[in-house]
Fold this sequence. Notes:
Elements: H1 2-10, H2 13-57
Organism: Shinella curvata
Protein name: Flp family type IVb pilin
InterPro entries: Flp_Fap (IPR007047)
Amino acid sequence: MTKIFARLMKDESGATAIExxxxxxxxxxxxxxxxxxxGTGLDAQFNFLNDQLTDSQN
Length: 58
């Protein structure tokens, strides 16, 4: 029984898969946050340009 438990404790294949999953999740969160920030910045910039063009036509 102790040999089985010792072999189970040395097996790290599941831990590696979990680590890769956590890394993928972290990268996804970072990409979503970056895309959201970029989208907000672009929206503000395009609204500013639209206002400037509208004001210059009147």
